[in-house]
């Protein structure tokens, strides 16, 4: 018997079925049905080779009346040309027929191997079955159905009080590799039963993604299929229409917290990852340069392999900071800390630092690398992980 840990979101039903998109027996096709009157917003990958379902979903969501999402795992339907577009549209048509809605009200999503045509007949055969099994208690199963190289499902939920009523929000995500910010480097679906005006929802998803999925990196590669969808079913409480209201502030914090929890779960489940590391940059002249330095450190293969080896090779840290291309950076003003241990002072090895102190930090499963640039008052952070032998193995054997 399945155990449902995530709360229901009134106005949203889900179903998962095994379409056998790959040679496995697990559920790999997810259908999400959304009641009429909901607001739906999304952000998508900026990869120029965006997948066929991304192209179709971006086209359909502009209509403003989304009623269903269809997600398949095991095949990305990316770099598949006009046939890929036709296959994505065929999936939308199948969902529309099963739910008695228009194809333009369906958003398709795919994840998996790039460059192979979608086994569309298997998906078309699974859609009617999924439509018959739709129910409100489907979020936990949905999180498992969209997994690819993930080792565990990613879920999050929050409850807040809005105008005296309890408003719920639930989120699921998948992602463990090919993760680098540029919206959003994975698939994520977050839903709330609050009523949120469409313009506010559009702004909310952008801000939540900026604070979460656009702050993570596993390997520096932006996927062709990334998407993050935010659904407000509007079934609970009065409509939130004022961006300056207390109600909106409460919703924004809770929804952002869901996004952040999902984003961090992706990094912690990074392919072969053994360390979860926050890279914090302070003393920057701007947020842009702070993030540039943070990502240069967090994505450096040399830094990431040192993390895996628990080797506090601080020379790699200063190398990465210097590679960020910050104009006018004065190394003599740079200080670097591993948690509370100062390893670099005024651009060189801190006089009080010992190798044993660094090793104590680097052996921890979670810690912070803090870089103080000594240039200004801006600060930013990202979350990253290490590179292990398993990362190479997983990706070398991805298609076998």
Q: Give the integer mean of the pLDDT values.
A: 92
Number of H/I helices: 11
The name of the CATH topology of the largest domain is L-amino peptidase D-ALA esterase/amidase
CATH class of the largest domain: Alpha Beta
- The percentage helix is 25-40%
Q: What is the straight-line distance between the termini?
A: 32 Å
How would you characterize this protein structure?
- With 400 residues, this protein is α+β, with helices and mostly antiparallel strands.
- It folds into two domains: 12-268, L-amino peptidase D-ALA esterase/amidase; 276-396, Ubiquitin-like (UB roll), CATH 3.10.20.
- Helix content is 33%, strand content 28%.
- It has eleven helices and 16 strands.
- The strands form three sheets. The protein has a seven-stranded mixed β-sheet, with helices on both faces. The chain has a five-stranded mixed β-sheet with strand order 3-10-8-7-6, sandwiched between helices. A four-stranded mixed β-sheet has the order 1-2-4-5, with helices on both faces.
- The protein is globular, with a radius of gyration of 22 Å.
- The mean pLDDT is 92.
């Amino acid at each position: 018997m399945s155990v449902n840990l995530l709360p229901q979101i009134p106005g949203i039903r889900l179903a998962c079925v095994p379409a056998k998109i790959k040679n496995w027996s697990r559920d790999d096709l997810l259908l999400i049905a959304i009641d009429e009157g909901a607001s739906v917003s999304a952000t998508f990958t900026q990869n120029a080779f965006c997948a066929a379902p991304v192209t179709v979903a971006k086209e359909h969501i502009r209509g403003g009346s989304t009623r269903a999402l269809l997600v398949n795992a095991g095949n990305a339907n990316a770099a598949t040309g006009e046939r890929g577009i036709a296959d994505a549209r065929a999936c939308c048509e199948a969902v529309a027929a099963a739910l008695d809605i228009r194809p333009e009200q369906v958003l398709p999503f795919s994840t998996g191997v790039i460059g192979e045509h979608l086994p569309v007949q298997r998906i078309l055969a699974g859609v009617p079955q999924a439509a018959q099994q739709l129910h409100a208690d489907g979020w936990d199963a949905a999180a498992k159905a969209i997994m690819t190289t993930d080792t565990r499902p990613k879920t999050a939920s929050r409850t807040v009080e809005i105008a005296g009523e309890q408003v719920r929000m639930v989120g699921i995500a998948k992602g463990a590799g090919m993760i680098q910010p540029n919206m959003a480097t994975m698939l994520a679906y977050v839903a709330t039963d609050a009523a949120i005006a469409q313009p506010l929802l559009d702004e909310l998803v952008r801000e939540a993604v900026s604070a979460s999925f656009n702050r993570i990196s596993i390997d520096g590669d932006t996927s062709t299929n990334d998407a993050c969808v935010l659904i407000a079913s509007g079934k609970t409480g009065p409509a939130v229409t004022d961006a300056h209201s207390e109600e909106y502030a409460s919703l924004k914090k809770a929804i952002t917290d869901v996004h952040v929890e999902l984003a961090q779960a992706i990094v912690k489940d990074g392919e072969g990852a053994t360390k979860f590391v926050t890279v914090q940059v302070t003393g920057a002249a701007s947020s842009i340069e702070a993030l540039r330095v943070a990502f240069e450190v967090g994505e450096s293969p040399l830094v990431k392999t040192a993390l895996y080896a628990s080797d506090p090779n601080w020379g790699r840290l200063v190398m990465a900071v210097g590679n960020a291309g910050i104009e006018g950076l004065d190394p003599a003003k740079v200080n670097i800390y591993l948690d509370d241990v100062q390893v670099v002072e005024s651009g060189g090895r801190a006089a009080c630092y010992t190798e044993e102190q660094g090793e104590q930090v680097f052996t921890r499963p979670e810690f912070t690398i803090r870089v103080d640039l000594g240039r200004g008052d801006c600060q930013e952070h990202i979350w990253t992980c290490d590179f292990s032998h398993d990362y190479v193995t997983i990706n070398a054997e991805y298609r076998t």
